[in-house]
Amino acid sequence: MRRISIFGATGSIGQSTIDLIKRAPDAYHVVALTGGRNIAQLARDAIDLKAEIAVTGFETCLSDLQNALAGTGIEVAAGPQALIEAADRPTDWVMSAIVGAAGLAPGLHALRHGGVLALANKESLVTAGPLLKSEAAKYGATILPVDSEHSAVFQALVGEDISRVERIIITASGGALRTWPLEKLATATVAEACTHPNWDMGQRITIDSASMFNKAMELIETKEFFGVSADQIEVLVHPQSLVHALVGFVDGAIMAHMGPHDMRHAIGYALHWPQREKLPVERLDLAKIGQLEFSAPDLQRWPALRLADEVIRRGGLSGAIFNAAKECALDLFLAGEIGFQDMAQVVELVLNRHWQNSAGSHKFDVIPLDDVLKADHTARVWARECAKTLHN
Ligand code: NAD
Ligand code: MG
């Protein structure tokens, strides 16, 4: 039996992972399931999957979780330290699907068992890619992509030599506001930014899709996963989201990966890797689909893409600053304190401040966790300050 843990089990990716696990309960021993405030879901899944321990990331939810699991024999814990302790329990396969920078520390600890870390939490790679990769190498662990685009690239690269790759193209649906007139974007509300045309995802990533911050994060993630340069990474707008990524080789060939919009494909690929197993996803009928559209992204509409390109070129702590400023700007947008397009402006102001202050520092590739966390904290403080200066 494979020992597995799921971090962020109550979220969209977590629930899709559980759907696959529940189809073959005898194949897995579930060590830890973690969630946030949805205690009923966490408790239900912990009971169904006979987990050793259930952990909520929030201390204030501890007594609810204790009550929900009283008498079941399932251990219970709460808080960021408890998430790390859960990650320290030996496992063979771990799903990292907490949203945001909160997923970094548990992922780093999970790598120490030398198994597979299935990485949905792109924020980990964006904030601390080199650290994550060096820890994986140190402990003999494998990091597998779960983001659909990166899983697609990974699959297109099987049996290929990365030095023969000319470019990697990841696709973007364009999100909820793709066809809105540019001048109307500033007025977009949370509800309007929150409906994704193709994918059913968590609220934060859905808004990040509309602003293209999700794709911007994925550009940085591409650089970290595959070690290519900024010049080799491209974004292509593809509203149908059926081609997830394309890899162009030196001989002019392009390998494209297609599939339905169902994250159980990328999750299942990471779960069964290096094998392929049958998965309960729709089979595409291309004759019925008929046409696929592609276009170049408009950088005026989506400034996040331009910022990501600069982040990749500058390296160092730029990714950590970018992610934290983006998370904070999104919090401010959700709270109604700034507008939809102000998010990119806030992130740009924070990045410029960082680059002015840090020219030439952090030449080392692998930046220690403490420095990453300090940069994360500073970027959030700066983002709040910068947001106040907008529209003055
Ligand atoms: P979600 O909001 O649906 O779920 C997030 C999970 O993280 C929940 O279990 C929540 O309880 C938990 N969580 C949130 N804050 C926490 C905290 N401070 N401490 C501990 N746990 C916390 O998000 P999602 O859409 O499932 O996305 C999860 C991750 O996967 C994100 O990094 C996202 O970018 C990535 N991802 C998601 C999709 C998708 O289709 N949903 C696709 C690609 C990548
Ligand atoms: Mg993606």
Describe the structure.
This protein is α/β, with parallel strands linked by helices and about 400 residues long. The chain folds into 3 domains: about 1-145, NAD(P)-binding Rossmann-like Domain (Rossmann fold, 3-Layer(aba) Sandwich), CATH 3.40.50; about 155-260, no CATH class; about 315-390, RNA polymerase sigma factor, region 2, helix turn helix motif (Rna Polymerase Sigma Factor, Chain: A). About 45% of the residues lie in helices and about 15% in strands. Helix 6 (about 120-140) runs parallel beside helix 10. The radius of gyration is 20 Å and the shape is globular. The protein starts with a strand and ends with a helix. The mean pLDDT is about 95. It binds nicotinamide-adenine-dinucleotide and magnesium ion. Magnesium ion binds next to helix 7. One of its GO terms (molecular function) is 1-deoxy-D-xylulose-5-phosphate reductoisomerase activity. Pathway: Isoprenoid biosynthesis; isopentenyl diphosphate biosynthesis via DXP pathway; isopentenyl diphosphate from 1-deoxy-D-xylulose 5-phosphate: step 1/6.
Sketch the major β-sheet: 7 strands, parallel
Q: Briefly note the structural class of the backbone.
A: alpha/beta
The CATH architecture of the largest domain is 3-Layer(aba) Sandwich
Low-pLDDT parts are: none
CATH fold name of the largest domain, please?
Rossmann fold
Instruction: Give the count of structural domains.
Output: 3
Number of helices: 16
Cofactor: Mg(2+); Mn(2+)
Organism: Falsihalocynthiibacter arcticus
Keywords: Isomerase, Isoprene biosynthesis, Magnesium, Manganese, Metal-binding, NADP, Oxidoreductase
GO biological process, one term: isopentenyl diphosphate biosynthetic process, methylerythritol 4-phosphate pathway involved in terpenoid biosynthetic process
